[in-house]
Design brief:
Strand content: 5-15%
Strand order of the largest sheet: 1-5-6-7
Number of strands: 7
Helix content: 40-55%
Number of domains: 2
Order of helices and strands: HHHEEEHEHHHHHHEEE
Number of helices: 10
Distance between the termini: 38 Å
Largest sheet: 4 strands, mixed
Shape: elongated
Structural class: alpha+beta
Length: about 250
């Protein structure tokens, strides 16, 4: 159900540069402030669901261009969005069943990413042969203006090939699986203690991507697409018992 969980660590690494850019941007202007900023999309028009007044999310397209551009007038409290979505995400994705799926996906990824030691050793031999051939030529007095540069390039390739081979030989996937639960718990903890809003947001992006808010009979339903298997989770985020009433208009 949640293959994307296993890819969260990679997602966070991939977005580290984006966060740095956001931090620099924030020095000259405000960056995303809330946990679900940038993750919510209108199920009617596909536009962004944004803070439209002090406390509520609404369709940005409707806010800026009116009903002719998007008929979705529903608004929902930011606190309700965060409470209901986090609760649903943790119960559906970050549950014990979710951990089992996470562990299974980790095993698959480790198996599919086993280092190719044969190719690495071949690269070392090839680079070593290049260096040996150049050195033999030098010993025989075959020296040209490009000999020194060719030798340096070959030695550099050999050094890199050896480093890569060493890294592959030291790769120990057996140590990763015992730490899977620890990694998983840290991920859950980041979502429960959201002092690092940007980090938690990127974790969510890696888990579920964007969230569609679809109006249905006076309620907004959050539709979550969970990873590569395209399974869906629907969570109501407005109206009903304990929810803020639907608000029409701006």
């Amino acid at each position: 159900m949640n293959r994307a969980v296993a890819r969260t660590q990679a997602t966070r690494a991939r977005t580290a540069n984006q966060r740095a850019i956001l931090q620099k941007t924030a020095q000259g202007g405000r960056g995303p402030k809330y946990l679900f900023s940038g993750l919510l999309r209108c199920g009617e028009c596909g536009g962004a669901f944004v803070i439209v007044d002090r406390h509520r999310y609404g369709c940005g397209t409707h806010k800026d261009r009116g009903s002719s551009a998007c008929t979705n007038k529903l608004k929902v409290s930011r606190l309700i969005v965060e409470e209901k979505l986090l609760s649903g995400i943790k119960s559906e994705i970050l549950s014990e069943a979710g951990f089992k799926a996470f562990e299974q996906e980790v095993r698959k990824l480790l198996k599919s990413n086993q280092p190719d030691l044969s190719s690495a050793r071949k690269a070392v031999r090839s680079s070593q042969d290049e260096v040996d051939n150049i050195m033999n030529a030098i010993r025989q007095g075959i020296i040209t203006s490009s000999t020194k540069a060719a030798l340096e390039e070959s030695e550099s390739r050999l050094s890199k090939a050896k480093d890569q081979l060493m890294a592959m030989e030291n790769f120990q996937p057996a140590q990763i699986l015992p730490r899977a639960r620890e990694i998983f718990r840290k991920l859950v903890g980041r979502l429960e203690s959201i002092d690092d809003i940007n980090g938690a947001r990127e974790d969510l992006r890696g888990l579920i991507g964007e969230i569609k808010l679809i109006p249905e009979q006076g309620e907004l339903w959050a539709v979550l697409q969970q990873g590569a298997e395209n399974s869906l989770c629907k969570i109501t985020v407005v109206a009903g018992t304990g929810f803020e009433p639907v608000t029409f208009g701006l």
